[in-house]
Amino acid sequence: MSRYSNDSEEMSEESTGRSRNHHIFQRLGVEEDESTEGEESDTNSYTSEDESDDDATFSSKDMLECNFCYKSLRFVVFECINGHILCTSCCSKTNSCVICEPRTQHSHVKVACDYEPYGCKEVVNYTQIYEHVNSCHFSPCLCPQINCSFQANTTALGEHFMINHPLRIPPFKYDQIFFTFVRVKDDVTILQGISDGELFVITCKTQYIYKMLSLYHIGPSRRKPEYVFEMLVLPHEKYSNCILQLKSEVVNVDDRIYPSSSAIYVSYDYFKDGLLSIKVRISKIGANP
Ligand SMILES: [Zn+2]
Ligand SMILES: [Zn+2]
Ligand SMILES: [Zn+2]
Ligand SMILES: [Zn+2]
């Protein structure tokens, strides 16, 4: 185990974030990797603020992966104030670090969210990072405008959309019915909430002799639906008894790929001069109307 041969040397170093971090890399064998570029920048991501914190904070969970199977460590990891890591079972056997002074404490290793570059400030216990990442509000979404490659969290995306892509339909108010229309030649019609800038898309796909209308929210696809919508196609003079209406949860889409979802099937003769008039209401789940 030559990898650990300079442990005692490490011990004499000041207990700064840099040396702690360095030590963890060494323990995990990262230094033996041929490429050390990632390590350099990760080490440099420590700031003086981090040094006063007893918890180790990593800028990416990728650093904590097994060097044998390359899978991320999923069990609870504990770390003493000098950065010596212990697994859960050993931590329960000893209250002190086996390498340094027996008085030192162990704490949960914490990691920054994957979406830190997109604005998430969360620093989460390592064991909870997957759960957090899967429901993180800052997970980036692709702009719904065809041919636009802009990606951002939903708030920044709303601002981007307002500046760069003029809306065909004025922003709507939540919980209120509004009239709008879709064009037979448009695959997507983009809507924007007036109060929060959130983006929604009405898709109009061709299915046999029908047009299939659905509504989606632009948001992290791993998040549960946060909105419900109602859609009503205004009656056609020929089929005035036929009411085409739909109420459903709004599926989140973050990559312009709209999965099959609840839809209204409309025959082409509902379109007048290439336009179909509809009534829509969108509400936040759990909000009082
Ligand atoms: Zn492994
Ligand atoms: Zn220790
Ligand atoms: Zn996050
Ligand atoms: Zn865009």
Keywords:
zinc ion binding, Seven in absentia family protein, zinc-finger, 28% strand, 5-stranded mixed sheet, 289 residues, alpha+beta, elongated, 2 domains, Apoptosis, Tumor Necrosis Factor Receptor Associated Protein 2, Chain A, disordered N terminus, binds zinc ion, 4-stranded antiparallel sheet, single chain
Give structural notes:
The chain has helices at residues 7-12, 17-28, 37-44, 48-51, 88-93, 129-135, 154-164; strands spanning 57-58, 77-80, 85-87, 106-108, 110-112, 123-125, 141-142, 151-152, 178-183, 188-192, 199-207, 210-218, 227-233, 244-249, 251-253, 264-267, 275-284. It is α+β, with helices and mostly antiparallel strands. The protein has two domains: 2-135, no CATH class; 141-284, Apoptosis, Tumor Necrosis Factor Receptor Associated Protein 2, Chain A, CATH 2.60.210. Strands 10, 11, 12, 15 and 16 form a five-stranded mixed β-sheet that branches. Strands 9-17-13-14 form a four-stranded antiparallel β-sheet, with no helix packed on it. A three-stranded mixed β-sheet has the order 1-5-6, with no helix packed on it. A hairpin with an 8-residue loop joins strand 7 (141-142) and strand 8 (151-152). The radius of gyration is 27 Å and the shape is elongated. One zinc ion binds at residues 113, 115, 120, 122, 132, 136, 138.
